[in-house]
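worker-03 picked up job from queue 'complexes'. Input manifest follows; two sequence lines, order preserved.
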Amino acid sequence: MSKLTRRKLLTVAAAVPAAAQTPAGTTAQDWAKAAREANQRNGELLGGIKIPIAVEPATIFKA
Amino acid sequence: MQGFGDDIFFASIAELNTRLRKKEFKAEELTKAFAHRLETLGPRYNALALPLTKTALKRAKSVDDELKRERFRGPLQGIPYGAKDLLALAGHPTTWGAKPYATQVLDETATVLNKLDATGALLIGKLALVELAGGGGYRFPSASLFGPGLNPWDVTRWSGGSSSGSGAAVAAGLVPFALGSETNGSILTPSAFCGVTGLRPTYGLVSRHGAMALAWTMDKIGPLCRSAEDCGLVLQQIAGGDPLDHGSAAKNFYYAPQYARKFTDLKFGFSPADITNAEPDARPVFQAAMEVIRSIGASMVETALPEFPYAALSGIIISTEAASIFEPLITSGGVDQLADVKQAEGLKAGLEIPAKDYLKAMRIRSILKQKYRELFSNVDVLIAPVRGTIAPKVTEPLNGSPVTSGMAQLVTAGNLAGLPALSLPCGFVNGMPVALQVAGPPFSENMILAIGREFQNRTDWHKRRPKV
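worker-03 finished. Artifact:
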């Protein structure tokens, strides 16, 4: 392992402040749109899969 | 006070317990030494969420009284440990790694912590994690109230997520073992990146009561340790039915690798594509590790995972369940306090997933579980790299792997099917650890632990230590 130095720690700390997490030009709206589109794509992908009508969801309810 | 050398911080649970029973040192002394190390070095890796030294030392005194009276409670008696800070400890902060919950104090203690307390294990600290265990999908390792989990093998690299503090703390010898949780890779990934041995138990084997819920149908609690043997000892204590956990399988677990089937009677499923899918520098390491697996004596059977849209299934299921769980956080606007913008927006978008998509995913999951039952009638376990790469730099965005061939999706598949899996350190690439996983059918923990133990009898990767 490379030796931990104060400079290295400062480099790490400086590199990841919360404000720097989003790449330049990417806004919260962009992430929201991307997340919605990903969910929609996933839904469409699953919607295209044909399964027997008798298949129940893998959830368990115990009364 | 007993002066401890470095070896003690990397000793196995069995060795520590034996030395406690022989009265070579007291539980109080051992606890003080580990707690001091965790408090001093934990922040170096952003691994420590909350030190619990005072309460642990108080409890250690009562454990010493029991040991003095030769009232033995099992192999974890007097052993210090850490727990991911999504496990509630009554009266103490439980942050779930997220700013909106930074001051949260719950009035119940997680079942697993109560079970460990009953056996005399000593909780010396809560350990850091990715905020909300990664719910919503994070973009950077820094998605945590505690900052990015730093890897003891190279602090410019990530310790993995979401059990980032658990992986780093075990790797750096700050705790003999730690508890983590996994919904979709959160035990296996930090175990692989940090070079420790981690066990994801079968869904339902370990109670999640008192643990933050991320996805009810996928969450599991499990140990990160120095060896497969230690994982077995911890699992034996934390497993068992719990009426307070609706997903509980109401089964116990007794660690008995000596009764596992002969290796020569077993069939190990593998895919040659996993070697070529790995990053080039890692290929010879995985190749050599597979040769060790082959030398164990089981039949090696080329196997393919059943074809499913694994990422889409896990994406829909986890997003829908997480959004429902965190609906109050989302609708109140508190979600915007999360460190990772992508994660906050991912959680919000989860609320809009149509019921038809979630139910379709869960219906396909029923078929998936059946397909894996069929697969395990042909092979006994599946063996593949946990991740084909080393830990990324903490400044790099986490883009996920585009590889889907071979068993590249075994982590997600195993989580969807509720399968147990063991992460075994199997070598180093450019100074960073990599690992193989052994996944088996539900409740096959003794078999996969026996295979892990045999692998670790033939290798010493799990004994390597980072310079701390």
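worker-03 released lock.
The first helix of chain A runs from residue 6 to 15.
Confidence is low (pLDDT under 50) at residues 1-22 of chain A.
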